[in-house]
Amino acid sequence: MNLIKPCTLALFLAASGLTAAEEPAYAPQAPLAALNLRDGDAIVFLGDSITHQCLYTQYVEDYFYTRFPKMRLRLHNAGVGGSRAWDAHFRFDRDVAAYHPKYVTVLLGMNDGRYAEYIDDVFTSYSGEMNRLLERIDECGATAILMTPTMFDARAKRMQPPGGFMGPKAVTFYNSTLAYYGAWLRDTACERGLGFVDLWGPLNEITINERRKDPRFTMIKDSVHPDPAGQVVMAAAMIEDLGLPEIVSHMSFNLKDGAWSSVSESADVSELKGSADRLSFTSLEHSLPWVLPEEAQLGVELTDLSQRFGRETLVVSGLPAGTYSVQIDGEEVTRATEQELHDGLPLHALTTTPQHQQAAQVAALNKQRNEGPVKTLRNEWGDFQSWKYLQAQVEKNPNDEAEKRRLADVEKKMPGMEERVKAAEAAAMAIEDEIFTINQPRPHRFAIQPASE
Q1: Using one digit for the tens of pLDDT, what is the confidence trace for 254-297?
Q2: Which of 92, 201, 268, 338 is 20 to 30 A from residue 85's alpha carbon, by CA?
Q3: How far apart are CA 35 and CA 128, in angstroms?
C-alpha cells in the first residue's frame, strides 16, 4: 500500500497556504424546503418550448391567483421553443434578470440531450452551461429552482408514422438520458441549496399506471410536449415539491348539549345560528378553490388535484339521521346525509358552489391572458433566439449562403422589438389587474337544513 509521506503532505499544505488543522471541512447545505413568498415577489419560469406552451405555467398562476388573492406576485413566463441552457444566456438580462425575481424555475434539458442516447460530451456541455446559468441567477439575487426534464414518451413516438430524425436506439434510450440529467439536477440542487421539482417521475408513474388499463395511453402525443393533462401533472408536482399550502379551508361545526360550536381553518365564521336539525352561518374563506380550464380536467382527475391541493371541507356533527340540503347564498349546491356531513363534505368536489364558479372565472381570464399577450411576448423572444442562433451559425460558417438568407429574414423582425415587448407586458398586466378584481374571496351564507323542506 502506497502512503503519502508526511513531508510530502506538509509541502502540499504549505504551498496551498493551509495547515492540516485549517483545511476546510465539507459543509453540506439543505436544499430549499418551501417558497417564502411576500407581496410583490417575482417568479420567473425559464424554459424551452414546454414552458413556451403557456400551460403548466398558466395552471401554477391559477393556483397563486386563487390561493394568495391578497398577495400580488409578479409571474413571468420566460420559455422559448428550442431553447437550451446555452441559448438562455442570450436573453437572460432582459427576459429574466430585468424582472428582479426572487425565484427562477429552470426547465431545460429536453433539447440539450440532442434526442439521442446518452453522450458524455453532450452532457458535459449541458452541465457546464447549466452551472453558468445558475451562477447568473445567483448574481441577480434570485434562488434557482431546478426542474427535471419531462418525460420522453418512446411508445408515443413508436405509434407515430415511421421516419423523423431519431433512430431506434435514440427512441429507446432518450427517456433514460433525461432521467440521468434529472438525477444530476437533483444532486446539484441539493449541493447548492436550491429548489428542486421532479417532473419526470410523476409523468412516468401516471403513464405506466394508466397503461395497465389502456396500453395506448399517453399524455405526450408527439412524444416531447405534454398535453394539458400532462401539464397539470407538472403543475401539481411544482405545488407539492415547493411546499405550498394544500388546503383552501376547513370548517367544522358540532352540536352538543343543544348548542352549536365551530372551529375553522383559513376561514372566518360568523353569525352562527341553529337548532337541533339545522344550522346557518356566514363564512369568509381566505382563498378560492384551485380550478383549471375544461381542457385540463383529465389532468385534474389523474392527479386528484382538488383533494390533494385544494381541499375545502365542511364538517357538521350532531345532526339527526336524514338527508340534508346544503345551501349557499340561498341556492342548493348539494344534498348529503348526516353521516356524510359528519365525515366531511368535500366542497372542492362541487362545481355548483359560488366559490368554484368565481375561481373558474379567474382561470378563464388567465387563459385569455396566456393565449394573448403572454404568447405574443414569448413569440417575440422566439424570434430573438433564432436571430442569436443564426448569428452564431453564420460566424462559424461564413460561406453558408442559406444560413445568411435565414439570418437576413430574422433580422427584419428585430427593429421595434423592445416596444413590442413592452406593449405585450402592459397588455398582460392589464388582464392581471382585472384578475385581481374578481379573485377576492367573498362572504357566503351557508344553510344546512332537512331536505324535505
Answers
A1: 999 999 999 999 999 999 999 999 999 999 999 999 999 999 99
A2: 201
A3: 26
Q: Are residues 197 and 276 in the same domain?
A: no
Those residues whose C-beta lies under 8 Å from the C-beta of residue 47, and which sit 6 or more positions away, are 78, 79, 80, 83, 105, 106, 107, 108
Q: What are the C-alpha distances in Å from 305 to residues 11, 83, 106, 200, 276?
A: 62, 30, 23, 18, 36
- The pLDDT of residue 19: 53
Rounded-to-10 torsion of CA 300, 302, 304, 309: -60
Q: How many residues does the chain have?
A: 453
Question: Which residues are bridge partners to 161 per DSSP?
Answer: none
DSSP secondary structure letter of residue 24: P
Q: Pull the grid cell for residue 90.
A: 442570450
User: Grid coordinates representing 403?
Assistant: 444560413
CA-wise closest residue to 207 among 216, 198, 196, 194: 216
Write out the three cell numbers for 385.
433566439
Residue 162 lies in a domain: yes
**CA atoms of 66 and 31, how far apart (whole Å):** 27
In a domain, 297, yes or no: no
CATH code of the domain covering residue 153? 3.40.50.1110
Q: Is 276 exposed, middle or buried (0-12, 13-18, 19+ CB in 10 A)?
A: exposed
For residues 251 and 282, give the distance between their C-alpha atoms in angstroms, rounded to a whole number.
Answer: 11
Let me know: does 123 contact 181? Beta carbons within 8 Å. Answer: yes
Contacts of 375 (CB under 8 A, 6+ apart): 54
Which H or E run includes 384?
A: helix 375-396
Residues 228 and 282 in one domain: no
Owning domain of residue 85? 28-247
pTM (2 d.p.): 0.92
Rounded Cα distance, 453 and 450, in Å: 6
> What are the φ/ψ torsions at residue 316 (nearest 5 degrees)?
-130, 115
